[in-house]
Structures are given as C-alpha cells and as structure tokens.
Amino acid sequence: MEGIARYTWEISKRMILANPQDQFYLFFDRPYDEQFLIAENVHAVHVFPPSRHPILWKIWFDRSMAKALRKHRIDVFFSPDGFTSMTTEVPQLLVIHDLTYLHYPASMKRGHLSYYQKMMPLFYKKADRIVAVSKTTRDDIVAHFGRKPDQEIAVAYNALPEQKPYPSRSIISEDYILYLGSIHPRKNIIRLIQAYNDFREKQPSKRIKLVLAGRKAFGNDTLDTVLEQLRFKEDIIFLGAVDEETKYNLLQQARLFVYVSLFEGFGIPLLEAMAAGIPIVHSDDPALMEVGNKIGKVAKSTDVNDISSAIVDALTDEDWRRQAVKDGKDRMADFSWDESASKIYQEIAKLNKSN
User: Fold this and answer.
1) Domain limits, the chain
2) Whole-angstrom Cα distance, residue 98 to residue 8?
3) At a CB cut-off of 8 Å and minimum separation 6, what does 209 contact?
4) Which of 93, 89, 51, 55 is nearest to 69 (CA)?
5) Is there a common fold for 3-159+336-354 and 176-334?
6) In this structure, which CATH number among 3.40.50.720, 3.40.50.2000, 3.30.530.80, 3.10.450.50 belongs to the domain 3-159+336-354?
7) pLDDT tens per residue across all 355 residues of the chain
8) d(Cα 230, Cα 221) in Å, to the nearest integer?
9) CATH superfamily of 176-334
10) In whole angstroms, what is the distance from residue 136 CA to residue 146 CA?
11) SS3 sequence, the chain?
C-alpha cells in the first residue's frame, strides 16, 4: 500500500483494536480481502461502483455512500482520502494529505484537476472536522480555505509499520544512492538523474550507482529522452515497483537516500530512510523540511547543481554521516501510528458526542 492507502489502514486498524466497544464499518469500492476483518467489531461492505474516475467518485460518495451510511446507521463517517459525501447529514471527519492540485496542477490529469478545483473547497466546507497529516499541510489549508469556525485543524502524522524481519540479501552488488517513490514529474526525477550525472562528471572515479524503486506514473514523456543524453545513464537503474522485502533490503544497503520532490504533504520515504539508518538528501519543500527536522542535507529542488553538491557533501562528510544516522534514529520517536490514531479517534468522539 502506498501513501493514502497505508495511512487509512494503519489508522483504522489501531482504532479498531483499541476500541472494541465500537462497531467499525469499512466501505470498499471493490471486492475486499478477508485480511481486513481483524476483529469481531469490523464489518466490511462492498459499495458499487469502483471509483476510479471523477464521475464515479461523485456517484460513489454522493449516491452510493450516502445510501450506505443510512442503511448501516453510521454515526460518524471517517474519510481519510480527502473526499466527503455532499449529500449526507452524517457528521464527517476529513483527512487532507496535501494541496498538490493548487501548487502543481500540471502534475495531475486534466479531468482529476478540474474535479479537485471545483470540489475541494466544497469538501472543506462540508466536513465537520478536519485532520491534516503535517503542520505544513495544516497551515496550507488555512492559508487557502481559512479557518473553520470554532475549530482547530488537528495534525496526525504518518509513521511506519512494524518491519518484518526479512532475511538479508543483496539486491544491487555495487554501492548505490537510493530513491523510493513513484516515478512522476512532481517527484523531480529528471533533476535527480541530472544531478547524479553532474556528480559523476565531477567525480568520475566515484563508482556509485543511482537506484530508483517505484511504479512509473503518468507524465514521464521526456524522462527517457533526458536519460539517453546522460553520460552515466548505464549506472542509473529503474527497478519499477518493488515488494516490501526488496524495499527493506534496498534500504539496508544504500549509501545515501535522495528525495528531492517538488511538493509533498508529508514524505514517508524520509521516515523509511531514517529508520534504516541511511543519511538523507532532501529538497527544500516545507513538508520535507518539517519531517527532516534539519537532519538531512537540504538542496533547492529546482537547482540541479545544488542537488549535486548536496550529494557530494553527504557522501564524503563522514562526521556528518554518523551524526545524521543517530539523529534520524532519534527522530523516529516523534512519529507513531498509535498516537495519530488516538488523535483521530478523539476527533471522531467529538463528532459522535455532538451528533
């Protein structure tokens, strides 16, 4: 599970297990896996249609979900994916992960962008309570939508699931710099590979590869063209989407983690790198600055030379590397699914009490 799906499940799972006195209805837009039925107080409901298009989103939330909420006599609707039902009177708690559609509209498909531009202000107004996944996102919401009357927007961070003890195995035989995440223009992949090539041009004797692990999303038309022009293109490895065991081993063996995204609402890959004990280079995006907390080397996201220089510094400054690993491990204590689930449950309880 990626981003929002991971957040949804980690929060829901903990609320379910911590509150056996409550009944939890999990609504799916497709046939569900039995693994989600983790306790006797869980009820899984398949709600048609599969919501993979703006028109289907509206049908699913405003018709199908409104009907399902009535049928199952739901007290509070927890919507962790940023959408609300505009046609129900059931109190709704909305989680907003980021406002990408405002800051980087070119990173979205045209139909999706149009839907977000029209509906997000309405969702914000309709929701009874709001949760943001970072202080940066909270401040962004307030700046664009204003404060809701008599209500502070709660912040409930992402965290990492418990790591399974996967057996250690070598994925890449040589030293490498690692990127984890989707291959998408908003992730700044073109500047990343250009910065890597620039670093290798300056230090051609430094034999270290760049490994990118993640699914290839839309909008990558120019990526292959840029890649072909690079002198060290043979040392840039695109693995595609990887499973959890492969990701675990990639993290354990990397020399450096680089994440220079143009815009984020949080930045889970930084947590994965810190937990694995890898020094980090990240961009000056505000959410990454918040999560990174001055632990990683920071580079200007739009400056290839600055990214390249940060990579050089992070690979060669051994004193900094040792301190960065220690600080990263310490920083992990600030991110807890249990704590975030508790905060969200408190917000739900306020709605249930007032209902």
Assistant:
1) 3-159+336-354, 176-334
2) 15
3) 172, 174, 175, 176, 177, 235, 236, 237
4) 89
5) yes
6) 3.40.50.2000
7) 778 888 999 999 999 999 999 999 999 999 999 999 999 999 999 999 999 899 999 999 999 999 999 999 999 999 999 999 999 999 999 999 999 999 999 888 899 999 999 999 999 999 999 999 999 999 999 999 998 877 889 999 999 977 777 888 989 999 999 999 999 889 999 999 999 999 999 888 888 999 999 988 776 789 999 999 999 999 999 999 999 899 999 999 999 999 999 999 999 999 999 999 999 999 999 999 999 999 999 999 999 999 999 999 999 999 999 999 999 999 999 999 999 999 999 999 999 876 6
8) 16
9) Glycogen Phosphorylase B; (3.40.50.2000)
10) 14
11) CCHHHHHHHHHHHHHHHHCCCCCEEEEECCCCCHHHCCCCCEEEEECCCCCCCHHHHHHHHHHHHHHHHHHCCCCCEEECCCCCCCCCCCCEEEEECCCHHHHCHHHCCHHHHHHHHHHHHHHHHHCCEEEECCHHHHHHHHHHHCCCCCCCCEECCCCCCCCCCCCCCCCCCCCEEEEECCECHHHCHHHHHHHHHHHHHHCCCCCCEEEEECCECCCCCCHHHHHHCCCCHHHEEEEECCCHHHHHHHHHHCCEEEECCCCCCCCHHHHHHHHHCCCEEEECCHHHHHHHCCCCEEECCCCHHHHHHHHHHHHHCHHHHHHHHHHHHHHHHHCCHHHHHHHHHHHHHHHHHHC
Token digits of residue 119: 């509906």
